[in-house]
Structure to design on (636 residues):
């Protein structure tokens, strides 16, 4: 047996070693029978199967893990959980769709709970939901991703990634894929190493047993020789020590080598990411993506649910500023019932603020919830995909109207600072024309629009480079506009966490970066080496 | 059929009520809910819980419904029990709450 070296592109940093799990094609959708009786039987079998899987798992676990699984078994064994789904199936809705929407409604109830212990159960309910869906879809593959394993596959869906437990290590190796995909974003947020674009994975029926993944260099070694493995383990040890050192300094302020203070903010995609996180590691939250609220409920989340979530994030931040982005649907983030299907080029179509202004119902509801939350802490509201100043002005009129309506009803509210995301070159070039309370540079989209290179296409990955002088020039323009107008400029794209770009980004005059929680320690350590 | 039984039960047996404060540190969350429903299911009597003496009442044998109540620590939990073994059932669930579900 000889070791196999493959080179791809780094999608999420870090080193990992582990047994290989080969995922064959992932089943994304199932065949729908169209017969309510058959769909009912299918869902019943899936629920019972998932409960049986869990019962088996309990035997291998102890203490808290066993308690959590026991809770899941109890919930699955309760007819009240699937009741609504069976009702929906009777009206002709497919089993998977019925189950998903009923569970998402249940999850939304937990998410809006006052009490943290109940909110923490969101993850358990998601787990329950996905276990049954996997059973329904007949793809037992993703449930076979055991903790600590290296997943090798052509592609991997976000739900398959989320369904696996990455706390015990592991990594992802993809034949194709892109470092800007949603899974890559999730992997970076979780600290799971990932390499994409290594080329066809053909084993001739003999899949490898062990793999070494280098998410920094973008390389993978399958079935390493003992000496290769030993050297790799040595590197991992050193890296872990450095990581622990950086993490120990997480709570200290970020200072450059010449003593300049850099503001470090957090990007989060769901409030659960803040659980067990100390707010002292950051200077606030630079980006809360609110799409999660809409994905979970499959319908427009009501004002109370949104208010509860926003307020909770402000409470967590303990007086630090929190920037919440209004719904950024469209592009690669379709939302059923809201975005338009079949656009020939969704990235250049009706997305972000464009959609919000054209279909303002959801936007107004969100602004209302945000104005109410603003009473509880320093809240900033960020508008995505703003291209021309009139879009900001119209959005402000909507905010004014909602605040006036709330006040008329005697409901407590406050005016959040309204700013724009700079991700369209037109907005970057003319940033000073916008009457914005702040600018936040969305480097992912700014890069793909400037370089005309899609972020989800590995074939043009080399061109999709935020470090390109053209992109950096646009960032500099926005930074100078912010300075001239006396408002804050921050950068919240993936580039902020890419430590190879830290020096170039700080050279544009940026003094504020927003990154996912796992990147904080590493970024502070890198900033400390940069002279500005 | 189930409803018929329930109404007959409520005619033949007196309905017992009681209340107790949730003393365990985290309220009626995952593990306590599982313990409560397991205990409730070991009796034939109808057992319901509520956060208010006037309801709304929730089936204490359903973990899904008990979790939806989201009863926090310090809350007063009301019980309503009807059935042949109602007295024993009420004593058992009250003991569980007083005991903090073995967590306190």
């Amino acid at each position: 047996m000889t070791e196999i070296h493959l080179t791809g592109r780094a999608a999420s940093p870090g080193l990992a070693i582990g047994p290989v799990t080969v995922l064959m094609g992932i089943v994304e959708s199932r065949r729908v029978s169209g017969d309510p009786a058959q769909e009912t039987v299918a869902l019943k079998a899936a629920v019972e199967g998932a409960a049986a899987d869990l019962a088996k798992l309990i035997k291998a676990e102890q203490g808290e893990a066993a308690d959590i699984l026991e809770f899941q078994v109890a919930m699955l064994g309760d007819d009240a959980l699937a009741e609504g789904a069976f009702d929906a199936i009777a009206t002709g809705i497919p089993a998977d769709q019925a189950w998903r929407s009923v569970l998402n409604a249940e999850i939304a109830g937990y998410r809006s709970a006052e009490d943290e212990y109940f909110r923490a159960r969101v993850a358990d309910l998601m787990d329950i939901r996905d276990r049954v869906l996997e059973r329904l879809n007949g793809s037992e593959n993703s449930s076979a991703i055991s903790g600590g394993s290296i997943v090798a596959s052509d592609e991997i869906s976000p739900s398959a990634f989320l369904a696996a437990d990455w706390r015990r290590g592991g990594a992802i190796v993809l034949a194709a894929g892109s470092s800007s995909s949603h899974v890559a974003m999730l992997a970076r947020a979780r600290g799971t190493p990932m390499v994409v674009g290594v080329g066809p994975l053909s084993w001739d029926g003999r899949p490898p047993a062990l793999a070494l993944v280098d998410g920094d260099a973008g390389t993978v070694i399958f079935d390493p020789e003992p000496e290769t493995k030993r050297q790799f383990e040595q590197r991992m040890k050193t890296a872990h020590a450095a990581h622990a050192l950086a993490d120990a300094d997480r709570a200290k302020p970020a200072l450059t080598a010449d003593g300049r203070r850099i503001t470090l903010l957090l990007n989060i995609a769901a409030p659960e990411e803040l659980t067990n996180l100390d707010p002292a590691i950051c200077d606030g939250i630079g980006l809360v993506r609110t799409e999660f609220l809409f994905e979970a409920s499959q319908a427009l989340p009501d004002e109370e649910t949104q208010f509860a979530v926003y307020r909770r994030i402000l409470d967590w931040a303990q007086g630090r500023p929190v920037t919440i982005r209004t719904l950024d649907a469209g592009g690669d983030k379709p939302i059923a019932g809201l975005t338009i299907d079949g656009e020939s080029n969704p990235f250049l179509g009706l997305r972000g603020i464009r959609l919000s202004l054209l279909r303002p119902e959801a936007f107004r509801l969100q602004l209302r919830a945000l104005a109410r939350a603003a009473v509880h802490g320093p809240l900033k509201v960020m508008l995505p995909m703003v291209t021309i100043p009139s879009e900001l002005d119209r959005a402000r009129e909507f905010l004014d109207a909602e605040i006036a309506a709330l006040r008329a009803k005697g409901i407590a509210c406050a005016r959040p600072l309204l700013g724009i995301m700079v991700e369209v070159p037109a907005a970057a070039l003319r940033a000073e024309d916008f009457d914005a309370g702040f600018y936040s540079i969305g480097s992912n989209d700014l890069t793909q629009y400037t370089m005309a290179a899609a972020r989800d296409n590995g074939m043009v990955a080399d061109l999709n480079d935020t470090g390109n002088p053209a992109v950096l020039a646009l960032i500099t323009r926005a930074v100078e506009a912010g300075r001239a107008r006396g408002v804050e400029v921050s950068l919240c794209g993936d580039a902020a966490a890419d430590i190879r770009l830290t020096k170039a980004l700080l050279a544009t005059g940026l003094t504020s970066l927003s990154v996912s929680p796992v990147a904080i320690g590493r970024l502070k350590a890198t900033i400390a080496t940069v002279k500005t | 059929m189930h409803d018929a039984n329930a109404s007959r039960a409520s005619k033949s047996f007196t309905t017992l009520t009681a209340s107790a404060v949730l003393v365990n540190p985290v309220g009626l969350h995952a593990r306590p809910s599982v313990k409560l429903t397991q205990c409730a299911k070991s009796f034939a009597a109808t057992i319901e819980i509520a956060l208010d003496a006037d309801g709304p009442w929730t089936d204490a044998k359903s973990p899904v419904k008990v979790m939806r109540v989201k009863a926090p620590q310090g809350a007063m939990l009301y019980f309503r029990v009807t059935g042949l073994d109602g007295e024993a059932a009420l004593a058992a669930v009250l003991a569980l709450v007083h005991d903090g579900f073995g967590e306190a």
User: Anything to note?
Assistant: Chain A touches chain B through 21 residues (CB under 8 Å). The two ends of chain A are 51 Å apart (CA to CA).
